[in-house]
Amino acid sequence: MNKKINEKEIEEMNKKFPTGHYDRKGKTIGLGTWAKLLEDKKYSIVEQKEVKIGKKVYFVSSVWLGIDYAFEDEKKPVIFETMIFKRNNIKELLGDDIYQDRYCTEQQAIAGHKKAIRLLKAGKICNIK
Questions:
Q1: Best CA proximity match to 66, nearest among 29, 107, 14, 100
Q2: Does residue 128 sit in the same domain as residue 66?
Q3: Does residue 74 share a domain with residue 117?
Q4: DSSP 5
Q5: Could you tell me which residues come within 8 angstroms of residue 17 by beta carbon, excluding any fewer than 6 positions away?
Q6: Do 23 and 57 fall into the same domain?
């Protein structure tokens, strides 16, 4: 059951939780706005690509998280993530991710997505066997 969030719910959540979430530019937004943006796949997905290496298939996904995953020593919120998953022939993801990296900016996420694909193709990701 995927109920879409309505404008009244967005306003109520933003009042209760006005900080702790960020848009793609790194600007602070309320919980309700974050929840609404997260529903929008065009907004939350930075890049996604299927990569075939021999008979194996991998799914590389870079997304906007909108929640700060930074440790205390980070100066900017870490709000983007790239992950690589193994995939079977019917497009199901197989188990846990085999690679993960996080970023502060959308530009870093785009560059990180490309880097993850290069590493995967070069056999430099240890869990691809």
A1: 29
A2: yes
A3: yes
A4: P
A5: 30, 31, 32
A6: no
Q: What is the pLDDT of residues 7-53, one digit of tens each?
A: 777 677 666 655 689 999 999 998 889 989 999 999 999 999 999 98
Surface-to-core class of residue 129, CB atoms within 10 Å of its CB (0-12 exposed, 13-18 middle, 19+ buried): exposed
Q: What's CA 29's distance to the chain center, in Å?
A: 17
- Residue burial 54-90, b: 16+ Cβ < 10 Å; e: rest: eeebbbbbbbbbbebeeeeeeeebbbbbbbbbbbeee
Q: How many domains does the chain have?
A: 2
Write the DSSP symbol of residue 4: P
Q: How far apart are CA 53 and CA 95, in angstroms?
A: 18
The predicted-structure confidence for 69-119, as pLDDT tens digits, reads as follows 887 666 889 999 999 998 876 667 667 788 999 999 999 999 999 999 999
- Indicate if the pLDDT at residue 55 is higher than 70: yes
Range of the domain at 1: 1-39
